[in-house]
Amino acid sequence: MKVMIMYHSQTGHTKAFAEKIAAHLNKNGATAVLHELETVDQIPNGTLPKPETLRLKELPALDDFDALCIGSPIWAFRCAPLAIKAMQDLKSLRGKKFLPFVTMGFPLAFLGGSGAIKTLSQIAVNHGAIPMKGSIITYMLSKPEAMMDKEAERIGALLR
Q1: 120 Cβ partners below 8 Å, 6+ apart?
Q2: In 3D, which of 26, 19, 13 has the Cα closest to residue 103?
Q3: H/E element holding 155?
Q4: How does pLDDT run across 3-49, given as a tens digit for each residue?
Q5: Using N-to-C axis directions, what is the helix angle for 13-27 and 144-158, rounded to 10°?
Q6: pLDDT tens-place string over residues 59-97
Q7: For FRET with 9, which of 34, 37, 78, 94 sits at 20 to 30 Å CA-CA?
Q8: What does 62-105 look like in DSSP terms, one character per residue?
């Protein structure tokens, strides 16, 4: 299976999780390709732009991929606008497996993580994707490295 892993990371947490997922996928016989989401114009610190106001650098073509994983940090209790914009800009995900993942500071998934997974999954379904159970990694009062390892292993086995 060939899997595209697109992610946005501001602090490096989401990138670290994306890299762990890719390593587990590659170890389990899949081919994982990482792509960092970037905007054409820099987003000023402390702002939360609307997805429709963002211009993304070129998104990769997904024709040759069987699955898409997309990762986002949680900003202000919701999915980062870059991830939403990327999902909105994708042409078609018809028949592709889709798995979202997020990283967040707060220890409780309902403080943004669950909603972000739902938002990304709904956009994917609207584009014809087959949704799979997403992953939420929390940092406060948890062991994020152990959580990442466990979830990356689950994803690696699921998408081999």
Answers
A1: 70, 72, 79, 83, 84, 87, 100, 134
A2: 13
A3: helix 144-158
A4: 999 999 989 999 999 999 999 999 999 999 999 999 898 886 766 77
A5: 40
A6: 999 999 999 999 999 998 999 999 999 999 998 899 999
A7: 94
A8: -TT-SEEEEEEEEETTEE-HHHHHHHHH----TT-EEEEEEEES
